Amino acid sequence: MNSVVDLILNHRSIRSFTPEPIKGEQLDAILASAQAASSSSFLQANSIIRVTEPELRERLAEYAGQQAYVADAAEFLVFCADYRRHLAVAPDAMTGFTEQLLIGAIDGALMAQNALLAAESMGLGGVYIGGLRNHPDKVVEALSLPVGVFPLFGLCLGHPAQIPERKPRLPRALVVHENHYPAEVDSTLLAAYDDTMHSYYQGRSSNQKSVTWSGQIRAILGKEARPFMLAALQRQGFLLK
Amino acid sequence: MNSVVDLILNHRSIRSFTPEPIKGEQLDAILASAQAASSSSFLQANSIIRVTEPELRERLAEYAGQQAYVADAAEFLVFCADYRRHLAVAPDAMTGFTEQLLIGAIDGALMAQNALLAAESMGLGGVYIGGLRNHPDKVVEALSLPVGVFPLFGLCLGHPAQIPERKPRLPRALVVHENHYPAEVDSTLLAAYDDTMHSYYQGRSSNQKSVTWSGQIRAILGKEARPFMLAALQRQGFLLK
């Protein structure tokens, strides 16, 4: 279609980086790209913590579940929902609404995807680190996040030292619907996708395994999903009502 | 820097469209771009409802607060958090966790930003419609969304019939912090930004007004923010714990 679409379709998460740093002008363009994203009601309810201290990176890598690339990547950015500035200009601001967390999460992700694509357009690569949400309280403390600020996820960026395969996505017919959500999930399409993913996991160049997407989903959703998240958000002033 | 960064920095929300449709191959690339985004634990916990029925578009335009472009745009996509497929393959799945809504909201926005940038790379334009969250229950009903699915926001896409100015963003020093969140919000920078925005709103080519960013924030956050959102999410099976 065009080079932008090709770039987007060529995305794969990069978890191994060379030691080469990201140039100042590159980081500048990445951060400007993040800020260029749309903002709901122009609230601009997000901040980015750029983590440069090696000791702090090591701590975050551990919190994220021993993900060494959090420490090793040239850059590590933490995207936060942030109403601290709003509370500074409007001390009587009504915060804590569920809607405001949605805005922070959605707009923070729009910014991050701009940042990642800008980086990828320079030949850099990256990976999102949802694992920061394993220990939200520890991340809050490590980054000195005040009430009104919550760490959503991290983003590692650097020069790729690997070219992993691209994972096949769910068939579009299971994801994109016209006008109405279908009454039934198409089990035939799901079964075909399970075959596709089974072949992918068995045939890929590293970390081969014998699993299907459905099997992975049953394993992941058979367990609690970070059951401490609601309380952690509430301690930072979110999801109070 | 490069053409991708230029495209990202050149973003402005488009709210007026020509009647020209989006070609099938363009829509195909836009939807493929959406699906190419990263997915937390590869859950793929999102769906897109493409709304093509004119009557349905009119209803959604009304729900969104009389936003006529929701009816007029060549395409209107509703991005949803979606655990319905997971419940189909894992009927005993543990859902309703706050973490799972975060994943749906974040990953849905990553997909949407890919879709918007893909569209913009073709000379198309668009605008996000958070206003769908004015009436989440009505949107759920209009699109027949089952339990496990929640409409996050809409995206209008089409051929631009306007070129609005780009709004100046908060100064980077207020948004990007190194290692730690600052103890104080820099009031000097905020005041300077208020001057910048006041000049912008007074000088722009249409809809001039005499306001500052701080003034807008005080007005918006002086009111409740969609206080029905928590209950609406819970009715769809989200934020139960």
Automatic annotation (TrEMBL), chains A, B:
EC assignment: 1.5.1.38
Pfam families in alphabetical order: Nitroreductase
Domain Nitroreductase: from-to ranges: 8-159
MF terms in GO: FMN reductase (NADPH) activity
Xref: CDD domains: NfsA-like
Record's keyword terms, sorted: Flavoprotein, FMN, NADP, Oxidoreductase
Signal sequence segment: none
Top EC class for this record: oxidoreductase
Similarity field: Belongs to the flavin oxidoreductase frp family.
Protein name: Oxygen-insensitive NADPH nitroreductase
